[in-house]
Amino acid sequence: MSAERPSSRWQIMQDGKTFYKRQQLYSIPGKLPNLSDYIVAGCCYGGPIALMRDTTKLIALGRTTPAITKAQIQIYSPAGEGLLLFSWDQGKIIRFGWTADERLAILNEEGIYRLYDLQGDYQQYSLGNEAGEMGVIDARIHENGLVALTGSLSLLEVKGWEGSRPLTLANPNMSQPPNSWAVIPPDLNISRHVEVLLSVDSTIFTVDNLESIDQRLSQGPFTHVSPSPNGKSLALLTFAGTLLVVSSDFQRTLAEFKTGEVVGAEGSVHQVEWCGIDAILVTWDNLVVVVGPFGDTLEYYYSGPTFAVTEPDGVRIVGPDVCDLIQKVPSCSTSIFRPGSTSASAILYDAWESFAQRSPKADENIRSIRPELAAAVDECIEAAGQEWEPYWQRRLLNAAKFGRGFLDLHNPTDFINMGQTLKVLNAVRFYEIGIPLTHLQYIYASPSHLITRLTARNMHLLALRISTYLSLKPDAVLKHWASAKIMRSRPSATGTGADADLGGDEDVCKLIVDKFEQLGGADVSYAEIAKRAWDVGRGGLATKLLDHEPRASDQVPLLLSMKEDRLALVKAVDSGDTDLVYHVLLHLHKRLPLGSFFRLIEDGGSQLAPASKLLQVYAREQNREMLRDFFYSDDRRVESAVLSLDEAAATSDPASKITAVRAAQKFFSEDKDRGFESRMMDESARLLASQQQLEKETDGKIVFFGLSVNETIRTCLVNGMSKRADKVKSDFKVPDKRFWYVKLQALTSTSDFEGLDTFSKSKRSPIGYEPFVRHLVEAGHPKEALSYVVRCDSPKRADLYVECGEWRMAGKECKERGDKAKLQLIREKCPNSLIAREFDLILASMK
Amino acid sequence: MATSTVPLDETPPIPDEPLLDVNLLKEIGQKALVDALNSVNGAKTLVLDASLAGPLGLVIEVSLLKHHGVDKMFWLEPGPLTSTTPNIVYLCRPMIKYVKIVADQIKRHSRDSQKHTYTLLLVPRISTLVSRILEEEGVLGDVRISSYNLQFIPIADDVVSLENDNAFKELWVDGDETVIYNSAQALLTLQKLYGLFPRIVGKGDHAARLATLLTKHLPSDSSTPDTLLAQSEKIDSLIILDRRVDMITPLLTQLTYEGLTDELIGIKNSHVELPVSLLTPPPPMGAAASSAAPPAASASLKKVEPKKKHHLTTSTDPLFGELRDLNFSSVGKRLNKVAHRLEEDYKAREIALQETKTVAQLRDFVGKLGGLQTEHQSLRLHTGLSELLVPLTHTDQFNKTLEIQQNLLASYEIPSQISAIEDLIAQGADMQTVVRLLCLASITCGGIKVKALENLKREVLQAYGYNFLPLLLSLASPSLGILLPNPLPTSTPPALAAAKYPFVGLRKSLRLLIDDNPEALDEVENDISFCVAQKGGVLSNPAEKEKAAAASADGKAQPSSIKAQAHPIAGWRGFEDILATIPGETVDIVQSGGNTLATPMASLLRPMQKPTTTVIFFLGGCTYTEIAALRWVGRQNRGRKFLIATTGIVNGNSIVESIAGVAKSAGPKDAAI
């Protein structure tokens, strides 16, 4: 191991404060083709690069070039290992780029895009008809979506990678394609929506889904537009070669730099990328220049064309021979290793070195930094994370450990975590794995992200070891492993006959289940793996795997696609998730003939009763015809009748209403237990018919249709058709009591007191006369009420008089009956002293 | 005759120990909506389903919506929608009729070649049904479907509700179990916040279903929060009560202040409609009134009405907290007392004013002024409200109804009660009242004689219209079975026969009805309604039942002077026999965290002194009286508080109306937003 201090490889900016370092990640001589002939897309977080031959470039024939007539995409790891090679048989590729989960998104001119994983499996989506017709002329792909520029110069945005419908962004009204353009991804914007930057003429348009704004710049047109990793600043390169840095709201110009003045720069600028958030990297054929915030530069030379990939904490350069990482030296490293540094951490490191050399200086050093020792320890731990060489990592951690010994209390969590993390990082940085993650990137991207990247490369064992080491759940790894296992084991069974095939299913299933149980992957969804098996045409295996799935809701969709209808329905009902039940029902309704659909539900008995009920709820609103058939086919007379009544209530046409009621009556009559209902519906139909008759008699001036029996009688009475009312009464056998109440109320409402009087005398009232009094009083006719009081039972009369407001009469009544107690009661309630005095007189007279 | 749940001499129901902070739920609801709105960029038109407006009003304020880009708000109603904003956001429950309106409006727009971006937010979750219907209508591609997970809404310090008005009907008439699933999700959220319910007890078939769903661990995201792995510290158990188990309580007329207001005037989503004159005081608006002022957005939708919504809440109106659970007959007394106190305060103020010398004193004085005014205003409000109620309680029908109810509960002269009901029909009483009484008669007497029942049904149909036949059929259907003939016809399915409610036996064994005992008579003026209100409590709380059993004779009507230490809830122990007679499954599950090795006994051994909360979930809704009763029970013992969770607030009328499909005036004017 090199004993050379890390700082020996640092370069200093002209300002004398900032250091940059170029860390060689891998040496890859001859592994990659000449990048200048290719279109390249790099995946950040130490991901792979994808290459496609640039057809605009000339190529020397005769060399051992691969098939050049077909579009081919090659994917290489940062260590130069070929990961995947596939050819493209669709329309011309417009653009390709990497998604956050390390899939390659490829968009062609017809608006079709595919997402390839590292195993070469893909999903295909489309940008829709519009894009298909207009054609796509360019696109920008970011981690969580893409923005496409169509032939009509409008912008389409796709959010996420689930094939969602593209949204049209505001139209920038360009007359020709932009000189260059870029997008700021949604998660870097204040608005949380994607923003597109278009260089048009001398200015820049910013476009989001609401509006397109001209930023009124004059320096353009620009050849390169590049937003910083945090989305706050923009780097713009003019045709004249001036590099401008502006804030992304275009309010401030942060820096200006003339690239033409760079010594050794030849030809055109290839790339403008960010290195961290305050420096910009400009690349030429053999030269890479880092431009600092104050126009300071650092030059790096390469032997051939390079490709730069912006990382959150630096920039990765893939050159012909090497893969490098250029980054600003973090402050923790500078404070320890900067020549002449006197910071506490530097002294701590020095002390440890002295200690290792058994020099007494160690003690002296430690003493001198006693107050800042804790911070120094933390800094050493942090700095260890920044080092690439295990040698230096170990030294720094040792220094930290040494310092810790002098502290009474120090939380060791950071120390332990750093140790573990470095172990993981060193493992994946190994060239055969080829994921050159820095510590910061690892923290950003999360350990589970690293695991998925490993599984995507089919490195299950390493992924599993790392998850165990970091005590993560092994589920993700196991799931991926099982899927891969199913894919791989597919060909083995062919050609050896049906028995062997079955055996194969059995074996694979057992293998998977055993492995899961052994490794404790309890939460792995068997359904997903089963789906995988089903997708590759192994139905038997899928069924077997599905049996192990504990969650009903996960089983159902697969069961449906496997045409296990009944089972799917039962599972859905069991899960209690009504939406899932609907999902199955609607699916089956679409697929099965109506008859067998009904039979399936009816045969389910009580187990499927909830499903049947839900079907009814749905059909009542959306598909009555089906519901009618459903009830009919199951001989559900009562439900059929109720449905019919429902329709009767909904319709306003008299004839169809009567028909519907008749139909209901017929249904009821077919059920021997529903005699009562049948009779009632018969009555109802008769009532409707007689109401029609009544309306005809009154020349349709009075509305009868649809009223209840009581209301019909009332309407008759109110309109002076008392004969008719009597007829309704007798036709529908209305009891006297009710009839009397209705008539009382009706006559009172029309203030027909004469009629009321005759009515009351027509025969002895079945309801007594008290209701007469009360109702008249309530309706505000106490005078008229008075005449009925005498006809009431004598004990109640006094109170009734009071209700009519006739206090004197009440007093008289009491006197006549000699009811002194009552009199006293009433006296207490009486409204004024005048009456009270009268009462007193009466009281006095009653001895 | 009336009911009382709070002895007058007791201090106002201010919880002495802190409850679970239910406002957390409100914040969750609020944040979810804001996030959902923010996912759509730019100004948007919000189209709202009217049944959601009330619940939403309890969660979020209109100003906040405006702040998050809502430009205009409309009701989701059939007919064209004119919008000036590029975005239209629909917010509704996943009901077919709403989706059809949405589809229609989108189609109209495309016909008029208007371009909008549509977002459909479904409450509480995305539904396959909706996307299917949108697909059938051919507009699926134009809409982005997302969800707004609105779950429990706090409607009081100790009450959270899903505010689903139709829960009862959906469960027991339609057989649609969506409510159970949603309830399970909502309870799961509670568990996520507070930890696993250490014990789940429940009664009723649907309650059992809910308990299974809850314990079966609904499909959760890969990340299970830690709270789901350990038993809750704050909650000792969850009690799930199926509304079907106790149908009697909602059928009775509620007589507490809040309950009676609900019965007679109607409380919807904690809002009551009152005449404007009651709400706008002559002096500057008090805090209570201003909070109830309808937001500007609905002004455009609202016709000018003499009525106005008022939010009944204890946070701005402490007087309401004192009054809500009182028997209505004691409300007058209490108001009187408050009025006197207020007058004295005013007097004291005048004296104070004369004595005020320094600026500091003056500041104190002015500070108190606002409080007095608020109190004055709320006193005015409640006096006015009581005045509105009094005449309604003095009608013949009201008192006759109460009388029939009491006689039925006491099984006193059943035939004459039946004919009294018949008289009510003849007199033209409300359909709801009559149906409630009929059902009550059927439940308490184990069915009504076939002849009498047919006659009554015929009377109902003739008096109110033949269109109520489906209602009567629903009430008699096996799933509900609350209006049955006696004896049952031979062809009845066995399920129905088994569902018969053994009321008489229960009344005896649980002492549901208590004879007036002299000392309680003052405060607990009436036994019956009180007891039935208590019945909810009795059924719901096994621990309480144990206590009732121990304190033999006096039962629970007698407010014991010593607060008993709450017993740990130990399942249904001691009541198995009685419970077995009530139809419906009985559940008793002990949940221990996945990572603890706690035995079931651990839950019993928790320190007695530690105050704990019991969550009571009413599946199918609960009444205000039940809430009042549970608060009363909660005050009777130390160390246990109740958190009442429900699918919604119901009363007998609302249940009958929902089954009958009588559309309540759910028009725009009903919405709080």
From TrEMBL, chain A:
<dbReference type="InterPro" id="IPR016534">
    <property type="entry name" value="VPS16"/>
</dbReference>
<feature type="domain" description="Vps16 C-terminal">
    <location>
        <begin position="524"/>
        <end position="832"/>
    </location>
</feature>
<dbReference type="InterPro" id="IPR006925">
    <property type="entry name" value="Vps16_C"/>
</dbReference>
<dbReference type="GO" id="GO:0016197">
    <property type="term" value="P:endosomal transport"/>
</dbReference>
<dbReference type="GO" id="GO:0030897">
    <property type="term" value="C:HOPS complex"/>
</dbReference>
<comment type="similarity">
    <text>Belongs to the VPS16 family.</text>
</comment>
<dbReference type="Pfam" id="PF04840">
    <property type="entry name" value="Vps16_C"/>
</dbReference>
<dbReference type="InterPro" id="IPR038132">
    <property type="entry name" value="Vps16_C_sf"/>
</dbReference>
<feature type="domain" description="Vps16 N-terminal">
    <location>
        <begin position="6"/>
        <end position="416"/>
    </location>
</feature>
<comment type="function">
    <text>Essential for vacuolar protein sorting. Required for vacuole biogenesis, stability and to maintain vacuole morphology.</text>
</comment>
<keyword id="KW-0813">Transport</keyword>
<dbReference type="GO" id="GO:0098588">
    <property type="term" value="C:bounding membrane of organelle"/>
</dbReference>
<dbReference type="InterPro" id="IPR006926">
    <property type="entry name" value="Vps16_N"/>
</dbReference>
<protein>
    <recommendedName>
        <fullName>Probable vacuolar protein sorting-associated protein 16 homolog</fullName>
    </recommendedName>
</protein>
<dbReference type="GO" id="GO:0003779">
    <property type="term" value="F:actin binding"/>
</dbReference>
<dbReference type="GO" id="GO:0006886">
    <property type="term" value="P:intracellular protein transport"/>
</dbReference>
<dbReference type="GO" id="GO:0042144">
    <property type="term" value="P:vacuole fusion, non-autophagic"/>
</dbReference>
<keyword id="KW-0653">Protein transport</keyword>
<dbReference type="Pfam" id="PF04841">
    <property type="entry name" value="Vps16_N"/>
</dbReference>
<dbReference type="GO" id="GO:0005768">
    <property type="term" value="C:endosome"/>
</dbReference>
UniProtKB/TrEMBL annotation, chain B:
<feature type="transmembrane region" description="Helical">
    <location>
        <begin position="615"/>
        <end position="633"/>
    </location>
</feature>
<dbReference type="InterPro" id="IPR043154">
    <property type="entry name" value="Sec-1-like_dom1"/>
</dbReference>
<dbReference type="InterPro" id="IPR001619">
    <property type="entry name" value="Sec1-like"/>
</dbReference>
<keyword id="KW-0472">Membrane</keyword>
<dbReference type="InterPro" id="IPR043155">
    <property type="entry name" value="VPS33_dom3b"/>
</dbReference>
<comment type="similarity">
    <text>Belongs to the STXBP/unc-18/SEC1 family.</text>
</comment>
<dbReference type="InterPro" id="IPR043127">
    <property type="entry name" value="Sec-1-like_dom3a"/>
</dbReference>
<dbReference type="GO" id="GO:0016192">
    <property type="term" value="P:vesicle-mediated transport"/>
</dbReference>
<keyword id="KW-0812">Transmembrane</keyword>
<dbReference type="InterPro" id="IPR036045">
    <property type="entry name" value="Sec1-like_sf"/>
</dbReference>
<dbReference type="InterPro" id="IPR027482">
    <property type="entry name" value="Sec1-like_dom2"/>
</dbReference>
<keyword id="KW-1133">Transmembrane helix</keyword>
<protein>
    <submittedName>
        <fullName>Sec1-like protein</fullName>
    </submittedName>
</protein>
<dbReference type="Pfam" id="PF00995">
    <property type="entry name" value="Sec1"/>
</dbReference>
